[in-house]
Design goal:
The chain crosses the membrane at residues 12-32, 52-71, 78-100, 106-123. Keywords: Membrane, Transmembrane, Transmembrane helix. It is a multi-pass membrane protein. Pfam families: DoxX_2 (PF13564). By secondary structure, the protein is mainly α. It has one domain. 65% of the residues lie in helices and 0% in strands. The chain has helices spanning 5-30, 41-47, 54-70, 74-97, 102-121. The termini are far apart.
Length: 145
């Protein structure tokens, strides 16, 4: 086995691990009662100054982005990481302003840094690449051929 395969497989495994953690976040945001992270998120969101239903918005974004992170196309990984950067910036700010536990502040900030790294790894050469479906060897979009 080539020595170049291992770093790629490790990175893929890391994407899956991070996506799994956001999927757990998705499930716990929809969970009606207390979670293994403490009180129900409906209660936590109200304590942080948000409406209780906002947990569904955050959970949905986490779930969709978790799926995007494991799709083996760079543009999907980039879009997922970028959306999570926006979400995690708000989460980090919320945890700092609300005076949340240290582990919650550190976890949000750590995930934010990881998403910045994922976005940089998958940065498109041209922003229009995010909109293209694919091109043939001659550069003609596949949808026009």
């Amino acid at each position: 086995m080539s020595t170049r395969v291992w770093p790629r497989r490790l990175l893929t495994a890391f994407y899956w691990f991070v996506a799994f953690t956001f999927f757990v976040g998705f499930v716990t945001k929809y969970w009606p009662g207390p979670t293994f992270f403490g009180p129900a998120y409906s209660v936590k969101f109200v304590e942080w100054g948000y409406p209780s239903w906002f947990r569904f918005v955050v959970g949905t974004i986490e779930g969709v982005c978790a799926v995007l992170l494991v799709i083996p196309r760079r543009r999907f990984k980039f879009i997922g990481a970028t959306a999570l950067i926006l979400l995690l910036t708000a989460a980090t700010t919320t945890h700092i302003v609300a005076g949340s536990e240290l582990y919650e502040r550190v976890a949000a900030l750590t995930n934010l840094v990881i998403m910045f790294i994922f976005a940089l790894i998958n940065w498109p050469a041209d922003w229009r690449d995010l909109l293209r479906r694919g091109t043939t060897a001659q550069g003609v979009p596949a949808c026009l051929k």
